[in-house]
Design brief:
Blueprint: E1 3-14, E2 17-28, E3 32-36, H1 43-50, E4 58-63, E5 66-67, H2 73-78, E6 81-84, H3 96-102, H4 110-123, H5 125-129, H6 140-153, E7 158-162, H7 170-185, E8 189-194, H8 197-203, E9 206-211, E10 214-220, H9 221-226, H10 228-235
Parallel strand pairs: 3-8, 3-9, 6-7, 7-8
Antiparallel strand pairs: 1-2, 1-4, 4-5, 9-10
Helix pairs in contact: 3-6, 4-6
């Protein structure tokens, strides 16, 4: 399997605070890989480093065979690596449709943007029903779907989702995970950053556990779901 993403021995510090130490992980073409861990484990720092928002002190990040360790965030987006940040970060005063259009800000072909918007509406029909509604008036689950839909407009080859189920009801969590599985089935690789290990491992092929800025466990989703440490810390008995 060809790797679309390789993170190799990455260290990140915020001043004197060491956030990541020697973090390494890969995402293969067509894979869903989950990055699990508690608050403060370094999950968001990892994905922010991959997307160029944070610079590592050491280590390298390679995407689609290119070294992107020092690349700008917008050039990383142009290569097809799209980051859906924690907290949704939609534009609350813009309509659903306007939010989606902004997902194509690096694309010069308007017809391509329009085609992808139609595809998002087909995938997420609730957004189509609310296309003229301001983003800030949507429910939490609908806002998360909008954030994912906006990312899809950019044409992701690899989509990174940071805590997409945070604060959502169980039924909505299931809907978000179904959407992630559908995106993967359509051809995009996925790096899923999640505290909800039970939900994440149901859709993931493989996973990593991050603790205090270090990778402490890795394996297939089935292996992690059986691992006593994962069961005790994240799944419950």
């Amino acid at each position: 399997m060809t790797n679309v993403l390789e993170v190799d021995a990455v260290d990140v510090a915020y001043g004197k605070v060491q956030a990541l130490t020697g973090v390494s992980l890969t995402v293969g073409e067509g894979e869903v890989v989950s990055l699990l861990g508690n608050n403060g484990a370094g999950k968001s720092t990892t994905v922010s480093t991959i997307s160029g928002l944070v610079r590592p002190q050491q280590g390298t990040v390679t995407a689609f065979g290119r070294d992107i360790t020092r690349a700008t965030p917008w050039s990383i987006v142009e290569q097809g690596l799209i980051h859906v940040p924690e907290g949704r970060r939609i534009f609350s005063r813009l309509t659903v449709h306007e939010n989606l259009l902004l997902g194509g800000y690096t694309i010069k072909d308007n017809s391509l943007i329009e085609s992808r918007v139609r595809e998002v509406y087909d995938l997420l029909p609730r957004l189509a029903d609310r296309r003229a509604q301001q983003g800030g008036t949507l429910s939490g689950g609908e806002q998360q779907m909008l954030a994912i839909g906006r990312a899809m407009i950019a044409g992701p080859r690899l989509i990174m989702l940071d805590e997409p189920t945070m604060g959502l009801a169980p039924l909505v969590v299931a809907q978000v995970m179904e959407t992630i599985a559908a995106i993967n089935s359509a051809g995009a690789s996925v790096l899923l950053i999640e505290q909800n290990a039970r939900a994440a491992l149901k859709v993931a092929h493989r996973g990593y556990v991050l603790d205090s800025g270090r990778v402490t466990l890795t394996g297939t989703a089935a292996e992690l779901a059986r691992d006593p440490q994962v069961v005790e810390a994240y799944l419950g008995k």
